[in-house]
Design a protein that fits this description.
69% helix, elongated, mainly alpha, 11 helices
Length: 274
């Protein structure tokens, strides 16, 4: 499956788009997450088709009543494997939600880090070191790398709001194209946190953080165990990819971060795997 495939409804940028390596790596993991979902679905459909064809071929010549009943039951329930796969909807949704958001958050950290590497003033402002810490570094570069890592960790713990503020204030770039995208991505990220820390059960913290949501088409209720259905996964992952793609273009241009076509990154990756 190529990068340009739409996975039915799941969106990916054009294969000839240019991007940074961090964005490419995010896209690669995103693609693998969606492919895994469809691979399982395709296997379920293939299992049902094989069982149906086999039962249709064997039933006319089968004389054993028990075996005939088994074959008949298989024909009457010809979507058994698909139903079984569908019973894992909650787990599939959780895995996709978590993997896509984790990849997005990693991308944000990495692209901010790349920007800091090119303009050290982004990290030096407001950062302090104790005298004894200074002597731990063998070079200025080592010290700068340490400060960058410390800043990235602080931003990661600060959540999306702090990351967006830093990107706006320090990098001078607006992260979102619209307020609706901001709100939708916040919901996507907070649902990931609920899966990770509360087994999908919505609590007051979640409801307070996502704010008003009814106008966006959601109906969250405190205490209810929730996961996104297919349509919302498509919708929210598209916002995630669109936001990262737009940000990647702006940051790469402003800080002169190397960009290549997605196809070029993939060829390089394929060469490494060979």
């Amino acid at each position: 499956m190529k990068l340009t495939d739409k996975f039915d409804n799941f969106y990916l940028p054009n294969f000839q788009s240019t991007c940074t390596e961090p964005f490419w790596l995010f896209l690669k993991e995103y693609r693998e997450t969606i492919e895994l979902f469809y691979f399982g679905l395709e296997l379920a459909h293939a299992t049902d088709r094989t069982a149906k064809i086999t039962s249709e071929a064997l039933l006319p010549g089968e004389t054993d009543e028990t075996r005939r009943a088994e074959l008949t039951e298989t024909l009457e329930n010809s979507d058994r494997a698909v139903k079984r796969y569908s019973s894992f909807a909650r787990l599939n949704s959780k895995n996709m939600n978590t993997n896509i958001v984790d990849g997005f958050l990693w991308y944000l950290s990495k692209i901010i880090q790349e920007s800091m590497q090119r303009r050290h003033e982004l990290v030096k402002s407001g950062e302090t070191l104790r005298v004894e810490e200074v002597f731990d570094f063998a070079s200025r570069k080592e010290m700068i790398d340490y400060l960058i890592d410390r800043k990235i960790n602080a931003l990661s713990y600060g959540g999306m709001k702090q990351v967006e503020k830093y990107i706006s204030d320090a990098l001078g770039i607006e992260m979102f194209e619209s307020d609706e995208d901001r709100r939708l991505l916040k919901i996507f990220v907070e649902m990931r946190n609920i899966h990770a820390h509360n087994r999908g059960h919505l609590n007051k913290i979640f409801l307070e953080r996502v704010g008003p949501f009814e106008d966006l088409g959601f109906n969250f209720k405190e205490g209810k165990r929730t996961h996104f259905g297919y349509d919302n996964l498509v919708r929210l992952s598209a916002v995630c990819i669109r936001t990262a793609h737009s940000l990647d273009d702006k940051v790469a241009k402003k800080f002169r971060i190397q960009r290549k076509r997605c196809s070029t990154w993939q060829k390089a990756d394929d060469a490494k795997q060979a």
